[in-house]
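Suppose you are handed a protein chain with no further information: no name, no annotation, nothing but its sequence. What can you learn? This example shows the usual starting point.
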Amino acid sequence: MAKIKKLLVANRGEIALRVMRSAKEMGIRTVAVFSEADRNAMHVRFADEAYCIGPPPSSESYLRMGKIIEVAKRSGAHAIHPGYGFLSENEDFAELVEKEGLIFIGPSADSMRLMGSKLAAKEAVAKFDVPLVPGTSTPITDIAEAKAIAKKIGYPVLIKASAGGGGKGMRVVENENDFENQMERAISEATAAFGDGSVFIEKYVLKPRHIEFQIFGDKHGNVVHLFERECSIQRRHQKVVEEAPSAVLTPELRQKMGEAAVNAAKAANYYNAGTIEFIYDEDGSFYFLEMNTRLQVEHPVTELITGLDLVKLQIRIAEGEELPFRQQDLAIHGHAIELRVCAEDPANSFLPDIGTLQTYTRPQGHGVRVDDGYEEGMKIPVHYDPLLAKLVVHAQTRSLAMDKMIRAIEDYHISGVETTLGFGKFVMQHPAFRAGNFNTRFIENYFKPEMLKEPPAGSEESLAAALAFVLHHQQKPPTAARATSTAPISKWRKNRV
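A reasonable first move is to predict its three-dimensional structure. Written in C-alpha cells, the prediction is:
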C-alpha cells in the first residue's frame, strides 16, 4: 500500500490537533474540516489546509459523510483519520472511504459492524473462550420471557440496550417486582435513542471495576495488547479519571486478561487500534463488556507507560506495515493518570457549563502532558462534547503520579466556566482512590457536591486560605478568580464520545 502523503482529520478540538501533530512529525500534510462554530479553532489554524463543512450542529457538519469525502478528494488527501466520537465507529463511513479509493485509518467496516452489536460481539468472542457475564445471548423484547431469564440468572440484573452505549437504555433491577417497569423503560429509551428496542439481560456485578485493554492488530494477522487502563471513576457511565496500569491486577491476571483481549480482537479479524473493555469483579473474575473500534480518549496513559505513539502506529498499520514489535517486547514503565478536564459543574450533578475562557493557563513541568484544543479568550461551543482538555501525568510509581496530578491540577488555572479540576483533586486525595480500593460507584459512595465548596467566610479554613492566597500573590502577578456558574440546569446540547 502506498505511503500517506496527506491526511484529512475528520474531527475537531484536541483529538484533531493530537492526530495532526503526529502526522506532521511523519512528514504528512494535514487537512482540517470545521463547522462555522470552529472557524477560529486551534486545529483549523494548525492544519496545512482547512475547509468549512457546514453550520455548528454536528449533524450539519462533522457527521456529513459525503461532504467530508468531497473535501478529502478535492484537497488531494490520501487518507482519513476519524479521531473518536462523530464518525469514528460508523461502519458505513469506513466503507465509503475505502470505496472512494481513500485509506481509512481504523479497522475494517466488517469488524466495526460485528463489534458494534453487543450481542453479535459476545457471540463472536465466546467462540474464542473469552469470559462473558451470565445472561442472554440473543436480543430480546418480550417482557415475560426476559423476566423468566432474569429469575434464572438471579437478581440484581442489568438490562442493557443491544444497539447502544453511553448509559442509554440501561437499567439495574434489584428485584422481581421492579422488573416489568424497568424493562419497559429500557425498551422505550433504546428505541428513542437508537431506533432499536432490543435489549439483553445479564448478571449485575455489585462492585464492578472497569478495566480495559488497548489492543493493536495489523493486516498480516498479528495482534498484541498494550496492557490495561483502569477507568472506574465515572459519572453517568462515562469516564472522568483513567490510569495505567491498574492497581489491582497481578502479573498473572494481567497476562490472562491480556490474552483474552487479544483473542477478542482475533474473533473480529481486527486490525489497527481498538479497546477491549472488561467488567472486573472483586473476587478476581472478569467478563467481556464490549469493544471500542477506535482510538480512545484515554490513549495517552498507554502512550506514557509504553513509550509508543499510538497515532503514528495507526498510520503505519493503515499503510500496510506489520507491527514493529511482538508481545514479549512490550513492558510497563512507571504509572500514568489522566483527568478529563470538562466544562462541567461537579457540584451540580456534573452538568455541562458554557461560557468564555477568561483565564486559561496550562500546568507544566516534568511528567505533565496537556492535550487540548482551547486558548484563553475562546468561547466553548454548546454543540459538542464539553471536554476541554486531557491532563495527563507520568511518574515512577502510582503514589508519585497521584501527587504529581495534584500539583498539576493546582497549577491549571481556568475561569469563565466550571470544570472537573476540583473533582479531580478530590479523587487524587481520597483514601479509597489512593489505596486502590474503589469501583465504578466511587462518586455514589464518596462524593457530595458540598465537598467542593469553599469554607464559610470567617472560619479558620477560610482565613488560612486567604493568608495563603496573599502570600502566594505577593510573589507573582494575580490570577483571575475562578468564575462560578449558578445555572441550575445544563445549556449544553451534548454529542458524547
